[in-house]
Amino acid sequence: MEKKETVTNSCGRILPKYIEGYGEIRPFLGAFETGPIEENEMRIVTGFQKPGGEKLVGTIKEALEKSGIKDGMTISFHHHLREGDEVVNMAIKAIRELGIKNLKLAPSALFETHKMILESLKDGTIRQIEGSMNGSVGRATSEGKLSSVAVLRSHGGRVRAIRQGDLKIDIAIIAAPTADPYGNANGLYGKNACGPLAYSHADSLYAKKVIIVTDNLVKYPAIPVSISQINVDYVVVVDSIGDNTKIVSGTTTIQSNPISEKISKFATDVVEHSGYFKEGFSLQAGAGGISLSVVKSLGELMEAKGIKAAWANGGTTRYVIDLFKKGLIEKVSTCQAFDLVSVQSMKEDPLHLETNIDFYANPFNKGCLVNLLDVVILGATEVDVNFNVNVNTHSDGYLLHGIGGHQDTAACAKLTIITVPISRKTNPIIVDDVTTITTPGECIDVVVTDVGVAINPKRKDLIENLSKTDIPLFTIEQLRDKAAELAGRSYVKPKTTDRIIGIVQWRDGTVIDVVYQVDTNKDEK
User: Model pTM greater than 0.85?
Assistant: First the structure.
């Protein structure tokens, strides 16, 4: 067998220089070591519409036909409705009825509700996925059922890829809770209001054709305008785009158990004594249960000490809105609503801002919001002794999660905290070497577990500040040892084949890691 040329990135991952279905790779060199490639930049798509032109069409299938769908195209979607989305399923059904094959799917994320896509992998409708995958689609990809390699990007990395031309979208299909006949759309009103339509903003600008799918057609103009008529080709009215009550999931509610409570307390103590907990600080927390619990605890601390945050960003939850309504957070910016309380707040309060993902996290614009973050609290599936973090794969090697804003916020916040249980059942979570590197250790400042806290040695200031408290401090190696002890075994990397099924890009488009197909063959006894 011919030996493939390889390259080693700055995290020590050995990668092939060329990957079939992807092309030449650019290895990750460091969090801020590369810049935009100007010659690849895309132009915003233009068009022409005669006065009195009609954009309403009868069905998604008709809109696809009018958009000139054909084999091999790239089709994009957003995921603001999360598990409640039905537009992806309706569109794929229409595409299959048209007999279209060999498509690249470019969703901002897929969820368990989209498991009907599995049939489209089998019959050749879908060849490749460039987008986050949760649940069944990720599991199928891990088992080699996607014919071409998947590409995983952060939220900011996805917009960067669209703007630079790495991800060229032929048809964007946008689920819109409210729209008018000329294509203006928003997510604030209608029976399936979901909040922002931020993930589709870049798609609407750069896709060759844009289709709005709505179940709430209103008189012109639909206000406010999240997606503009100047970028929309067709509007389709359906009975229902999904179920907005399913925006909320188990991962977006507080976990109430002794382990989570310990982690939450330690993380809150870290923020309080870090040097960043002061009047006018800025905050973002992930949507995981522990992160939400930290937000709640921080709110109580802010109230007790009379400290207000200037702003908070999200992935917004009712826990953030509660602090906002109490005046403990002065302004909120939202690119995704994780519950209907957040949607309602966006309707009612002018200090609650809808932000698109370019504004939020694109590393290659003239200044995105995450650059200004003081504190971010994030989760992980694994952390290693070099502080590298995995959020994509589980300890069994299965690709079950997307990146979200993890890389973007971790890279830019002044204080990045990772909250994890030290073990999950018999799996140690602090390990020698994570299965997949999603976010490099250079971006991580503190790891908080239910046993105690490890500070990245490069953060001398945090070590000095937190050493003066009663927070239990350990080296990351000590936490690794405790993780193995509590799990009852040392970490063992999952068994995989040598076939690459997924590529994890850093937010700048370089490759930080690859994901290998899980070996499903049972060991012979």
Answer: yes
